[in-house]
Design a protein that fits this description.
About 25% of the residues lie in helices and about 40% in strands. It is α+β, with helices and mostly antiparallel strands and about 150 residues long. It has one domain: Alpha-D-Glucose-1,6-Bisphosphate, Chain A, domain 4. Strands 1-2-8-7-6-5-4-3 form an 8-stranded antiparallel sheet. A hairpin with a 3-residue loop joins strand 5 (about 75-85) and strand 6 (about 90-95). The chain is globular, with a radius of gyration of 14 Å. About 25% of the residues are buried.
Length: about 150
């Protein structure tokens, strides 16, 4: 579920999506950083991950192909800024579309009783329409991650 409360040190305009998942932070972190695992759960309903290339280290690049419901492929790419297994990922985010800007995503994996709270913080979003789309996308991705982790 999306939240409007912003943790200290983050942009007030950031989108925050949280999900409790019954799995260890290590399992979830690995599912996020291993391309063979990521393609199995990535994407909201109606979107299928066609391929993923990930070099999960600071300065490493990633590229993810999303097949949309209408058959188009939408590429998302960026660079990893922080990779702290199993607790934190920070990476730039750019959709391969006209006028797209470079955004930033922080994912944290916090161990809690019987599982992990995954928080996605997406910053530098250009407009409300994009923000709503990202919220739907992240909620769907975390739902897929929860199903994968079972």
């Amino acid at each position: 579920m999306s939240e409007e409360q912003t943790p200290p040190g983050y942009s007030a305009a950031a989108l925050i999506v949280r999900r409790f998942i019954r799995a260890t932070p290590e399992r979830l972190f690995d599912a996020w950083t291993d391309p063979e695992k990521l393609v199995q759960w990535w994407g909201p309903e109606g979107v299928a991950c066609q391929s993923a290339e990930l070099d999960a280290r600071p300065g490493g690049a990633y590229r993810i192909a999303n097949r949309l419901a209408d058959g188009r492929i939408l590429w998302i790419s960026g660079m990893f800024e922080v990779v702290q297994r199993p607790t934190r990922l920070v990476f730039s985010w750019r959709v391969d579309a006209p006028g797209a800007t470079v955004e930033r995503v922080t994912v944290t994996f916090s161990a809690v009783a019987a599982g992990t709270e995954v928080m996605v913080m997406h910053e530098r979003i250009g407009d409300d329409k994009t923000r709503v789309g990202h919220a739907r996308g992240w909620e769907g991705c975390l739902e897929g991650l929860a199903r994968f982790a079972v």
